[in-house]
Amino acid sequence: MTSPPNARRVVIVAVATVATLVVAVILGLVIGPTSISAQRILGDALSHLGLGHSTLASTQSSVVWQLRAPRMVLGLLAGAMLAVAGGTYQGVFRNPLADPYLLGVAAGAGLGATLAIVDVANAATVPTWTPLLAFAGAMVAVTLTWAIGGRSMRSTTATLVLAGVAVSALFTSAQTFLQQQSSAQSIANVYIWLLGSLANASWHSVLVVMPYVVVCIIVCVLAGRALDVMSVGDDEARSLGLSVRSVRLLVVAASSLGTAAIVSVVGLIGFVGIIVPHIVRLLVGTSYRRILPLSVLFGAGFLVLCDTVARTVMAPSELPLGVVTAIIGAPVFVLILSVRRMSNS
Prior knowledge:
single chain, mainly alpha, 0% strand
């Protein structure tokens, strides 16, 4: 077993994480088909505040603040929410393989999006009401999962996870049935949505999801101390005076609500909720009071960097963001497992 990290190491990791986040934000604004330096972007931002004069043309300013900035901010919100949701799920279920989609969020959102897309048959684009139905589907799936596996006072994490598996299978089957009855164009649009993307980001979508995400992140981070207590087991946590069922309900509700809000606008983006908490755990130890806030920062920077790769590596074409996170996340996850195995041997 490895010894807990000292305070100095935690501070170093926190500073490095913040620095990575700043770099990700800068790259998200600077890199693109139209190359614009960070200094000129900063000057343009200051000019909007009445400080100095901008050297950007109006079209360049529009590219930065109407295209790149909302995409970058939505990426920050998505990465932060998925990472902290994965960390809280891993804590509340005491399962290192838990991710934000464990209780049916992905299957429910996928079914809702499929209902919206097949409703317009051969349309070339995804309909505007897709996020609303995806959000509704995700929340219905999580609510059904809790109703089946979490209502009883004697319910355990195992019953809740099994209920999530059953609900996910049901919703996925319904989605598959709908796809079989739809056109090739509709199926293509469904798969494009399922792979995840920030291409359609706007300030409207940012403002729609921000209240959900900010509140849910705060709830998850504040639950860190309770998750540390729950890590010793439900019975031991109850003996210490913790209301295990109430904490589990609160954490599951916050994680699921925030994840549903993000998924409804960006689609399904995998691996962020698994690998980010694991990386942070390797660096700062097993306390969720450290893991969760650092996962917020690390996840935000990680997803923005992945999106920068997704929109530039094959420019002018764009890779689905979920493909990039999978390409990066799968080998990183294997590496993490190898490191954990060696450290425990």
